[in-house]
Design a protein that fits this description.
Blueprint (H helix, E strand, L loop, with lengths): L4 E4 L3 H11 L2 E3 L5 H6 L7 E4 L9 E4 L2 E5 L4 H6 L1 H6 L1 H8 L4 H6 L2 H7 L6 H8 L2 E4 L3 E3 H4 E3 L2 E2 L7 E7 L3 E8 L6 E9 L5 E6 L6 E2 L1 H9 L3 H5 L16 H19 L1
Parallel strand pairs: 1-3, 2-3
Antiparallel strand pairs: 4-5, 5-10, 6-7, 6-10, 8-9, 11-12, 12-13, 13-14
């Protein structure tokens, strides 16, 4: 590691001030940032630790939405009775992230701020039409994720919570990398109270995206067979040592069909 200044924020306002003053990076669970720093892929001069800010933690129901504080850890979401009652798919998704160490340290806010193209949470936010709440504004998920490791956040802007509308049905299915548990392809399917269907895909492309062809098929027939029958265009999908673009395109339809089946 190289020399870095450590600051512990006392409040969201304090954290924003420190970030603006130092040009540093916010530290949430550290499961992505610390690893990137070790590899010299990130070299912030200052780390602003958010772990002591109580207002960033917790899970609550607000009307037709479940609101999760940005510093709430994956393990706490996975075990939350409130989440399991409202949107059990979110608890299942959280339970499948990384290993126990990652789930006990990593946070939902840190994950979406990092916006790894193979992370699980972006698919849930986009499929459910979630809203990212910051210290300054509210950003709908479709506008929040901009590209690989890129979001709509300003340098001194801090995520305080994520608000998930409660769907009629929802499920997440992924084909994980066996070493990292990141998604080679992950598909979150949500049927909303008005009957519309949203399908979001992670891991397959440089950024999370909606699978419009599968959405249209499921709007006509909400069945696993309908999802599996859709041919997904591979031309803009990732190809690497783990899977070809064509294989990922095939997995999108397969994972979508499994998610629909899991909806019951």
């Amino acid at each position: 590691m190289y020399e870095v200044e450590y600051q512990q924020a006392r409040s969201v306002a304090d954290a924003a001030t420190l970030l603006a003053k130092t040009g540093g990076k916010a530290l949430a669970g550290g499961q992505s940032l610390i690893a990137a720093m070790k590899l010299r892929l990130a070299q912030p001069g200052t780390l602003v630790d958010l772990s002591g800010i109580a207002e960033l933690q917790g899970i609550r129901r607000e009307g037709d939405a479940i609101v999760i504080g940005a510093m709430t850890r994956h393990a706490d979401i996975a075990s939350s009775a409130e989440v399991k009652r409202a949107v059990p798919a979110l608890a299942a998704l959280a339970e499948g992230i990384g290993d126990r160490q990652v789930r006990n340290m990593g946070t939902i806010g840190g994950s979406i701020a990092n916006n790894d193209p193979a992370a699980d949470w972006p698919a849930a936010l986009v499929a459910l039409g979630a809203t990212v709440v910051t210290g300054k504004r509210r950003i709908v998920a479709g506008d929040f994720f901009k590209g690989m490791y890129e979001t709509a956040l300003a340098d001194d802007e801090i995520i305080t919570a994520v608000s998930f509308p409660v769907p009629k049905k929802a499920a997440y299915a992924k084909f994980p990398n066996p070493a990292s548990r990141f998604a080679l392809v992950g598909v979150f399917v949500a049927q909303l109270p008005d009957g519309s269907v949203r399908v979001a895909v992670t891991g397959a492309a440089p950024a999370v995206f909606r699978a419009s062809g599968i959405e249209a098929a499921l709007a006509r027939s909400f069945t696993a067979e309908a999802a599996r029958a859709v041919a997904v265009d591979a031309s803009r999908l990732n190809a690497d040592l783990h899977a070809s673009a064509a294989y990922r395109a095939h997995l999108v339809s397969v994972m979508a069909s499994r998610a629909v089946a899991a909806c019951g």
